[in-house]
Amino acid sequence: MMQRYELLKVISEMRTDEIVVATMSAIKDWSKLSSSPLDFYVAGAMGYASSVGLGLSLAQTSRKVIVLDGDGSLLMNLGTLVTIAAVQPDNLIHFVLENQLYEIPGGIPLPGIGKHNLAAFARAAGFSKVYEFDQFTDFREHIGPILRESGPTFVGLRVNRGPSEPFPAIRYVEMARNLKNALK
Amino acid sequence: MTQRGHLICDELKRNAVEYIAWVPDSETHFMHDSMLNDRSLRVIQVCAEGEAIAVCAGMHLGGKRGVVLIENQGAFDSGNVLKWAVNLYFPLVLLIGNLGYLGYQNPENTPAGKMKKGEGEITEAFLEALGIPYELVNSDQDVGKISEAFSRAERDSKPIALLLTSADDFVPGGKGEPG
Q1: Among the four A33, A85, A105, B52, which has the fewest Cβ within 10 Å?
Q2: pTM for the complete prediction?
Q3: Cβ-based neighbour number of residue B156 at 10 Å
Q4: Which of residues 122-151 of A touch B (CB under 8 A)?
C-alpha cells in the first residue's frame, strides 16, 4: 500500500503542461502540491471527474489531461470507462486512487471490497493500457513512460487512508475561470 | 418525413457546436439520422446522462462547444451534476427529449407509470428547482429558440434547457406498446 500524497508528489514533479482534474480526497493532497491554473477540481459532482476530463481531452487535443479519481467516485460512474474506451482519447490518463473507503465522510468501507477490481473493469471496458501499482518504488520507476505514452490509459493505485484533515477551501468558480483563460 | 432534425443540426452548427454528448431516447428519435450523418458534428455517445453534462462542461472549459442531448428521465437521474453545472455557472445548452408531453397511444400503460399525466409538469418543476430556464421546441418554427438559448446561456452564465418533443411519431420500442 502507498501514500497518496507521495504518489501525487511524483506526478506533480513530472508534470509539465498537462491539465489536471482532481476530485474528492485527491484534492486535499494535490492542492498542497500545485497551484497551477491548469488544475481543476470536481467537487459537488462525485463520479464525474473523468467525464470532465474526457470533455477537456476532446477540446484540447494537443495537451494531455490527467484525471486523479477515487475508487468510490469511479464506482458512482462506472460507465465512464466504457465511454472513454469507446472515444479513445489518446491524451487522457485516468488515475484511480484506491483507498477502498469513502474517506471524506469518515472512512466508510466501499461495498464489495476484495471482490471487485477496477483495473479489470477498465480492461473489460476496452482500455488497452491498464496499469496497477501497490508498491511505491515500482510506481516511481514506471510512471514516467506511462505519462508520456499515448492513451487512453488507466492506472489503479492502491493507497492508504489519508490523514484526517479538513477539506481545503477552494474557489471553484474562480478555478474554472482560470482554467478556461489559461487554455485560450 | 420530418426536417426538424436537419433544422436543429443546422442551428447547432450556426452556434459553433462541434460535439453532441448523447444518450439515445425515443422522443428525439427524429434527430438520430440527421446528427449521425452530419460530418460537421461529432457525436459522443455516453452511457448515462450525467456523463453528457460533465463532458460538455469539460469541453466548455477547454474552449469548445458541445451540446447535451438526453431524455427528461435521464435529466432526473442527473440532478446532482446539473446542480454542479449551475453552481459553477457553466453556460450549457441542454436538449432534453420531453417524454410524455405529447402523450402515448395508450396513456394508461406508459413506461413512466404514474408520470403519464405530468412528465411535462415534473420536468418543468425539476428544472425550476435547479434554477435552469427552459423553452419548448415543439415545431419547426421553434427551432430558432436554440440560438436564443445559446445567447442566453452565455449572457446569464447558466445552463438553459430546450424541451424537444417528437417530430416523427416514433413509437418507443417499435410498433407495439411503448417500452
Answers
A1: A105
A2: 0.94
A3: 12
A4: none
